[in-house]
Design brief:
The protein is α/β, with parallel strands linked by helices. The protein folds into two domains: about 150 residues, SPOUT methyltransferase, trefoil knot domain (Alpha/beta knot); about 60 residues, tRNA(m1g37)methyltransferase, domain 2 (Trp Operon Repressor, Chain A, Orthogonal Bundle), CATH 1.10.1270. It contains seven helices and nine strands, in the order βαβββαβαβαβαββαα. It has a five-stranded parallel sheet. A two-stranded antiparallel ribbon has the order 3-4. α2 packs parallel to α4, α3 crosses α5 and α6 crosses α7. The structure holds S-adenosyl-L-homocysteine. S-adenosyl-L-homocysteine (SAH) binds next to β5. The site of S-adenosyl-L-homocysteine has 19 residues, from β5.
């Protein structure tokens, strides 16, 4: 069972999107479990203070090292801890694949201006970002990371092949998809998809994936070409 451990000031945000549909069924099947810890429970003064003003001045508040450290220490396990942060390595499908092979993960959600650097240094915590923009807290980022990871765990999606053919595998974006009816308004489904010729369909899809990637994501296209050249 994959163990997802969240450390947050806002436990009520979870499971959120992870409590529905395939994720709910997968947790009932014991493919994954979610443990949410409230950082505030580890505050040590009578006002349950979790943050304070930054040394050196500046706006906002910083989460206190001792409170975070207690929270992580008291709930320590064998899994690696990541702090969700705009400074981190940008999360992508490759990392999602990597994480999905682990037994579990700890995700520390920051708030306000962030966390005291010393807790990250002391505990050797790596940072991951969900993109080059600033969120108000790490919770929505943690949901994004877990969403991408859990659907890759064996048994979560009905068809294992559905994750093999989709966007970002091999640095390509997915081809266009169509369903019934064959004609909607005056728009038709591409003829080849109705042909029943699996070889032609496969070629058409690969072709579409390549031209879409080339047009929409030249950066991915370059990676795809470099990888293909090496093979
Ligand atoms: N002052 C910080 C931003 C703090 S935002 C800075 O300029 O870097 C508050 C919290 O939101 C952070 O502690 C982090 O946990 C979360 N967060 C914000 N943007 C994020 C992103 N792009 N990816 C992951 N977490 C993010």
């Amino acid at each position: 069972m994959f163990s997802a451990n969240i450390f947050t000031l806002y436990p009520e945000i979870f499971p959120g999107a992870l409590g529905h549909g395939i994720y709910q069924r997968a947790s009932e099947k014991k493919i994954w479990e979610l443990n949410v810890k409230n950082i505030r429970d580890y505050a040590y003064d009578k006002h349950a203070t979790v943050d304070d003003k930054p040394f050196g001045g500046g706006s906002g508040m910083v989460l206190k090292a001792e409170v975070l450290n207690e929270c992580l220490e008291k709930n320590s396990n064998d899994y690696k801890t990541y702090y969700l942060s705009p400074r981190g390595k940008v999360f992508n499908q490759e990392l999602a694949n990597e994480f999905s092979k682990l037994k579990g993960i700890n995700l520390l959600c920051g708030h306000f201006e962030g966390v005291d650097q010393r807790v990250l240094d002391h505990r050797n915590i790596d940072e991951i970002s969900v993109g080059d923009y600033v969120l108000s807290g790490g919770e929505s980022a943690a949901v994004v990371v877990l969403d991408a990871v859990i659907r890759l765990l064996p048994g979560v999606l009905g068809n294992e092949n559905s994750t093999k053919e989709e966007s970002f595998n091999n640095h390509l974006l997915e081809y266009p998809q169509y369903t019934q009816p064959r004609k909607w308004r005056d728009l038709e489904v591409p003829e080849v998809l109705l042909s029943g010729n699996h070889g032609e369909i496969k070629d058409w899809r690969l072709n579409q994936s390549q031209s879409i990637t080339q047009r929409l994501r030249p950066d991915l296209w370059t990676k795809h070409c470099n990888k293909s050249n090496k093979n």
